[in-house]
From TrEMBL:
GO terms for biological process: tyrosine biosynthetic process. One of its GO terms (molecular function) is prephenate dehydrogenase (NAD+) activity. The lineage of its organism: Bacteria, Bacillati, Actinomycetota, Actinomycetes, Glycomycetales. InterPro entries: 6-PGluconate_DH-like_C_sf, NAD(P)-bd_dom_sf, PDH_C, PDH_N, Preph/Arog_dehydrog, Prephen_DH. This is Prephenate dehydrogenase/arogenate dehydrogenase family protein. Keywords: Oxidoreductase. Belongs to the prephenate/arogenate dehydrogenase family. Gene3D superfamilies: 6-phosphogluconate dehydrogenase C-terminal like domain (1.10.3660.10), NAD(P)-binding Rossmann-like Domain (3.40.50.720).
């Protein structure tokens, strides 16, 4: 399959490397000449983005704020007839940017690093990692229906071929979940760094500080784009986080009359954390039908491979209560 990759930073570069390694015909472009030069040693790179139009699938690995311009200028809907997908972390914003494209399927690989650029790209970045593929029920602009399941399946085959686990979800459901397991974590990491902004604290900091603040080293533009594109869901998650922190503060204040309060609060979280990641159940076969796939994703399941009319998938194993 001939695949165009627009944007050759960490994610786009890793996509290009992984697809080329899997035997696909890859053509890439990046607006930065130095990035193009670095990537050209590994995959075919075009100086003119018009070369990307000669492809069956276009993968747009650009920041949320640039999606609309890429949609209009690099892959204009009146000239590009291929299947278009993206890698942005906010799916409702991506859907708006590509509303004019009849064959757009939003995507988001749940993989990354705190470092950016093609120098950090690697072909194995997505192996064993979740790749969300949006499957919409609603009516799109110009009277078009929801996501074409055939197009969705084409991309599911592509991403599972490089080792990813594909999770079906609507853009709305993705954005709510992403705010709670990624976007807010970046803000919390930054807040923890700010709380420990004194010489002694930084001298004492060790593993828990390192792990809890790792993503505070992420590029500022990346985090700002997440928050700007997913503001309502980020604010909702922050409200819920604030309520949990209030419970923790309350538990520390009532230690004299209920010394077990903080232990109870923490133990509930400890049990939830111990159950993640979920243990996979047995392989099952699911029809390539919209509602069946969305039910799979809502249950925390994922697709591991796509055959003719069937997805090979797994769901989290139900924990025994006996």
């Amino acid at each position: 399959m001939r695949v165009a990759v627009a944007g050759l930073g960490l994610i786009g570069g890793s996509v290009a490397l992984a697809l080329a390694e899997a035997g696909h015909d890859v053509i890439g472009h990046d607006p930065d000449p130095a990035t193009r030069e670095a990537a050209a040693a590994h995959v075919a790179v075009a100086a003119d983005p018009a070369a990307l139009l000669d492809s069956e699938v276009a993968v747009v690995a650009a920041p949320v704020k640039r999606l609309a311009s890429v949609a209009a200028e690099t892959f204009p809907p009146d000239r590009y007839r291929g299947l278009v997908t993206d890698t942005a972390s906010v799916k409702a914003a991506a859907a708006r940017a590509f509303a004019g494209h009849a064959r757009f399927v939003g995507g988001h690989p749940m993989a990354g690093k705190e470092t950016a650029g093609f120098a950090s790209a690697e072909p194995g970045l997505f192996r064993g990692r979740v790749w969300v593929l949006c499957l919409e029920r609603g009516v799109r602009p110009a009277g078009r229906g929801g996501t074409d399941v055939g197009d969705w399946a084409t991309l599911a085959r592509l991403w599972t071929s490089i080792g990813a686990r594909v999770v079906p979800a609507t853009a709305t459901d993705h954005d709510r979940a992403a705010a709670r397991i990624s976007h807010v974590e970046h803000l919390v990491a930054a807040a923890l760094v700010r709380v420990a902004d004194d010489p002694l604290s930084r001298a004492l900091a060790a593993g828990s500080f390192r792990d809890g603040t790792r993503v505070a080293a992420s590029p500022t533009a990346l985090v700002a784009g997440m928050v700007a594109g997913n503001g309502p869901e980020v604010r909702s998650a922050l409200v819920d986080l604030g309520m949990e922190l209030d419970r923790a503060r309350w538990a520390t204040e009532v230690r004299e009359e209920r010394p077990e309060a903080i232990a109870e609060w923490f133990d509930g979280a400890r049990e939830l954390r111990a159950s993640w990641p979920p243990e996979p159940g047995a392989v099952e076969r699911t029809a390539l039908e919209r509602e069946s796939l969305l039910a799979l994703g809502a249950a925390g399941g994922w697709v591991e491979a796509v055959e003719d009319e069937v997805a090979l998938c797994r769901r989290p194993r139900v924990q025994s209560t006996s």
